[in-house]
Amino acid sequence: MKILITAFEPFGGDTINPTERLLEDIGKEGIAGTEIQTLLLPVVFDECADKLLAAVETIQPDAVICCGLAAGRTSITPEQIAINLKEVPRNSSVADNDGNCPYDELINPDGPDGLFSLLPVRKMVDRMKEQGVPASISYSAGTFICNNTMYALLDNIRTKQLPMIGGFVHFPASEEMATAKPSLPSLSHETMLKGLRIMIHTLLH
């Protein structure tokens, strides 16, 4: 199985994005039955999706696992649904890495309001829990870059009727990030890498 795994660069003033390190390490592993391709995405509205969809066209994977950071969460959270909305709340100080702050904008004006993940999210969560990795299903990918990426991927699969599955997984902050913010929930890199490995194996079995 050919699997494309993506992650994001740091954003929001952070110098670390734990998914970037996950991407580097999973790309070095040889997992029997898979061909792992990796891609680092920019934290920029629409550009994140354009770069991903170009890679999908070139690589033609059987599955795509997009990974992103959700600082404040306490477990690995596969996303169940993406919504057709790009929005940075007006009272928020967060923008993308190009300074964009869209508000009440559709990702695809002709697309459905929401699209469900094509990954086996429940099985992924169950398998991670069975092996001691904190995991739960998330029912909101937000309205920022992660949701933009997930929706664009699923919409592309839908409109082109591609023979592949895909979805998005949010990871908590790393212990390295929590060093500067002791109250921030975190998981070790080793635990998050184990979770990613389990999710890949779940696609195979």
Give the helices and strands, then pairings:
Blueprint: E1 2-8, H1 18-26, E2 35-41, H2 47-59, E3 63-69, E4 77-78, E5 81-83, E6 114-116, H3 121-130, H4 145-160, E7 165-171, E8 173-174, H5 175-180, E9 186-187, H6 189-204
Parallel strand pairs: 1-2, 1-3, 3-7, 8-9
Antiparallel strand pairs: 4-7, 5-6
Shape, per Cα inertia axes? globular
Helices, by number, come to: 6
Helix content: 25-40%
Strand portion, in percent? 15-25%
Count of distinct strands: 9
Q: What spatial order of strands do you see in the largest sheet?
A: 2-1-3-7-4
* Poorly predicted residue ranges: none
SSE pattern, N- to C-terminal: EHEHEEEEHHEEHEH
**What is the average of the pLDDT values?**
96
Question: C-alpha Rg, in Å?
Answer: 16 Å
Pairing-aware structural class of the strands and helices?
Answer: alpha/beta
**Main beta sheet, described?**
5 strands, mixed
Distance between the termini: 11 Å
Could you explain the architecture of this structure?
- This protein has 205 residues and is α/β, with parallel strands linked by helices.
- The relative contact order is 0.23.
- The strands form three sheets. Strands 2-1-3-7-4 form a five-stranded mixed β-sheet, with helices on both faces.
- β8, α5 and β9 form a beta-alpha-beta unit.
- The mean pLDDT is 96.
- The radius of gyration is 16 Å and the shape is globular.
- It is built from six helices and nine strands, in the order βαβαββββααββαβα.
Care to give the gist of this entry?
This protein has 205 residues and is of the alpha/beta class. Helix content is 34%, strand content 20%.
